[in-house]
Amino acid sequence: MSTTRPYSPGDRGPEPSGASGASEGGVPGTGDAERGAPAAGTSDEGAVSSLGPDRPSAAEAAAKASAGRQVRRLDFEGQSGVVPLARDFARQALYAWGWLPAATADQRAAAEDVLLVVSELVTNACLHAEGPDEMWIACDNKVIRVEVSDKGNGQPAPRTPHRAARPGGHGMFIVQRLCLDWGVMRTPGVAGKTVWAELGAPA
User: 0.85 exceeded by the pTM?
Assistant: First the structure.
């Protein structure tokens, strides 16, 4: 749960270049992919990628790569069972990035939080936006960033007031409680949105 956000999460528009998660690079030498471009497979691990509206320059990508930023992309086109697919994809990334297997209970809880947030974001896209288009997951030092894009125009928000005993409507409340921060990005003139969330590793 964010305690530093000066305003409620919502539609802030595209994040400026250099903002958290605006542009990332992985290990160079394995090709590159731009957001929205068709993926050859479900994983672009190690690709020089952009999680925001601006693609990084070669120098920025190299700097990010040397800093250890790792990015993976999952394309949902033509896929069924997208929620378990997204969880399995995220779990594989957590193993690759050393979050799993967990050595302590706190590390295990942090990894489970990531998987739960992935499930909630993808489920929300299924329920309210005709399904997700793609998911990006990135690891930068001790922060995991998850982005799920869809073609929906709705505005995700925690149900207010939140009633724990009421069935349904808990997804974005869970995201808000578990994440360091979250929000929505939109590109002017382009249908749809990207819902992003960031989670931290245990100290």
Answer: no
